[in-house]
Amino acid sequence: MINFDYVRATGVADAVRQIAGHPGAKFIAGGTNLIDLMKEDVERPPKLVDISRLALSGVEQTDSGGLRIGALTPNSDVAYHPLIEERYPILSSAILAGASAQLPNMASTGGNLLQRTRCHYFYDIATPCNKRTPGGGCSAIHGLNRIHAILGASDACIATHPSDMCVALAALGATVVAVGPGGERRIAFSDFHRLPGDTPDRDTNLNPDELITAIELPPEGFNRNYTYLKIRDRLSYAFALVSVAAALEIDGGVLKEARLALGGVAHKPWRDEKAEAALVGQAPGEAAFKQATDIVLRDAKGLAHNAFKIDLARRAIVRALTQAANGTPQIQADKKIR
Amino acid sequence: MEFDSSPSGALPKTKAPEKLQIAITVNGVRTQREVAPWTTLLDFLRDHLDLTGTKKGCDHGQCGACTVLVDGQRINACLTLAVMKDGASVTTIEGLAVNGSLHPLQQAFIDHDAFQCGYCTPGQICSAAGMIREGKAQSPAEIRELMSGNICRCGAYPNIVAAIQQAMAQS
Fold first, then answer.
1. Which of A27, A131, A248, B136 has the maximal Cβ count within 10 Å?
2. pLDDT at B10
């Protein structure tokens, strides 16, 4: 880890001011990903601005009937919050599917959105990586790419986004609230993370001098018909090979609304609104679910080692939609997939 | 002191910042020290306070050997900076016994032979103490899931689960 300056922000405006004019300076909240990356010399910020003491924690109801989650609320507090458990159980489930129990006690909600990929080559500074050093080349495309993207990748980068929480937030249609030198702005969740294109060094559309202050959830939480199904190499504490957030609204035996987002398959949480639209008006069942799956995976592309993810995703989507339709969500401590 | 912080020399030279004064209550004792900002809580406990019960395993938050309780909550001491915990109250494995009597989890780990080499044990016990306080684990499956951040290289998992069940029944 390099040596760095450390300052403690006294407020949101002070935090933004402390970052401005300091290229490479970073906010630190939970630190669970940033400190790890600093130990690996992947991140080398000359200055850290500690925002962990700012008053940005807590969950409160919004005027529109949704919820506002403060950016510094620890992931575990979100997962176990009574209003989240009751109204947005897909978000609780996704958080509980991720990491260990220790990490979510530290990790912040805003920080979860800003996690970097766990691509082996991104972490290994002895190998070229366009995300770490733009223009250096991608070691994964012709390397070991079993964990990499099957959707939305580019010739420059095939990394995946590691978060489980973000897959549920994508399905729910959350909004990110951020403050920068120019004031506050609101970013739709689908516009927050980026596809790699030829600038894979940029994970998100957040500017370096902007601070996430809150995540807002819309009123509809899909608390009857939902699931978060995560498939990984070991049963706990591993990143998703494929994960599926499925949320349905069923009325009179017909799908009235559908939400479908995937993790572990792309550079960003992969929500497919065309597949969602195709489900609406149909009777929940294998025929409709397979049709939606074909739409999600219409442009899927496998490489030397990750082509298995296409079939895995196909089965996981159908299984997740079935779990959601039946009202039998995956329980994260239950390792049987039913 | 001026020094080059990057192995390749690609980054501009940075100046070593001043050490910062922090006060952390560790196992009930308020301790004041000057630390460099890049000192992790784990290194602070082991190298500055000589509390070597908390172990450094992977140093990347993957093994759980460094688990301690900060303001009652279990966290990985390797993934937080000591300066960020200024003012906090930390409990390590050395602080669990009261007046020479083992903590119920310590006794249960002995009763159930819940270790072999013992390197992961301080982290396992602190993590289990945090989990019992959280109150979310009831069944063995839930204990296994919520203890998944603590790896035991010797594979003592069945005995660890049995020990935690015994301590949970007593709490």
1. A27
2. 55
